[in-house]
Amino acid sequence: MSWFSRTTPRGKDTGRPMLEIEKLDVYYGQAHALQEVSLTVAHGVLAVVGRNGMGKTTLCNAVTGLVPARGSVRLFGEELLGLDPSAVTAKGVAYVPQGRRVWPSLSVDEHLKLVAGTGRRGPWTVQRVYEAFPRLAERKGNGGAQLSGGEQQMLAIARALLLNPLLLVMDEPTEGLAPVIVQQVADMLKTLVSEGDISVLLVEQNLGVAIDVADTVVVMLNGRIVRSMPVAELAADRDLQHRLLGVRTAEEAAQDTAEAAPADDAADGGVTVYTVRREGDDSAHPALSLSEDADRSQGVTRWSRAAGRVSVPRDRLASARADATGQLPEPSRADQ
Prior knowledge:
alpha/beta, Rossmann fold, six-stranded mixed β-sheet, 13 helices, 10 strands
């Protein structure tokens, strides 16, 4: 695969890490989404793992300048925080967002030509992309909406590579992909790092992919980095995976279900239903009394009532009268 660059990345001779993040804070209103996050990407792939809602995507957005943040984000010692996203891209950071976000009406070729030449000068060109991703060459005339999920992900990655980045930020690149495509993406990432001058900050919920491609893994919990370790350490400790990430194998889940079943069956001796009547309910015709909860189910609230009257559908009112009197009412002229 000679089409990957082997050039020395800028800053490598200075001894500085590729990416340094120190005490990064992000707020959404009063919500403290990222709390003093610190991590370093020296070279290779750093995987950030964690459950949903832990702040992983917010971390990607902060690094790429898409959300305001406090703290420090440095690329080879150069501060990125406070720059516009376009300026961050010009410094050498490319983003592969979650969900791919390709334009449905633009063809593959139009996607690539639109991006080509807008980033740093480097080895990646449209022709090199087609050599690296033969499937995209076959589909170059197809629109983004006509591509499969795997093809869209290839296009999103190729689009980022055309910026000739030093750092590739990837948010859930294998989400929703078939296992065979997941493996192709993982192989491509390993090739990029081993034969090129690109480092990767990888946010990934697929723990198998993170373990396969990363050198170091950090675990995020409630907007904080709670653990950083070599990937081999996490891969070898199943109990640690469960405690930090809630990861369980199918066999472990089946065993938990089997152990819980007898207790559930023993407790399921019968179900008692209690009905609570509000004070002031019509005792003479209980079927005609409507609680506020019933009103809400019909789209009626205390704010939409007119002079204390509640509009009740005719079929429901007729059924209620039948329950109360034992016979169906005569149809009115409006019903005939």
